[in-house]
Design goal:
Elements lengths: L5 H21 L8 E4 L8 H4 L2 H9 L9 H11 L11 E4 L15
Length: 111
């Protein structure tokens, strides 16, 4: 967790709980619900971070793979969940984070 991120992290937690409740409500109708949880993704919304090399590199270094995700890597995970190969996956959170949560990556940016 990082200072100044309370609302952002609360919304992420809400999405996970919402998915879990939907599993309980919709599972009997054979509807699967999962969440995809990316961390640092190279998109137009992250350009502010990319413009600061220190900030950008520290975020990359906090992942086990030492890089940011590409948007298509996040999309590929969502597509996988829609295929028959994922037919018994429900109520799960798929972390597309390069190992960030596994190694407890965190960084306190300059505010």
């Amino acid at each position: 967790m990082e200072p100044g991120q309370s609302v952002y992290t609360a919304t992420k937690a809400a999405i996970v709980q919402f998915a879990r409740v939907l599993v309980a409500e919709l599972g009997p109708c054979n509807v699967r619900v999962n969440a995809v949880a990316p961390v640092v993704v190279d998109t137009p919304l992250t350009q502010q971070i990319k413009r600061d090399p220190e900030w950008y590199n520290v975020y990359a270094d906090k992942t086990a793979l030492k890089r940011w995700a590409r948007p298509e890597e996040v999309a590929d995970s969502a597509v996988f969940l829609a295929t028959p190969a994922a037919s018994y996956i429900t109520g799960s959170v798929i972390y597309v984070d390069g190992g960030w949560t596994a190694i407890d990556g965190r960084f306190e940016p300059k505010l």
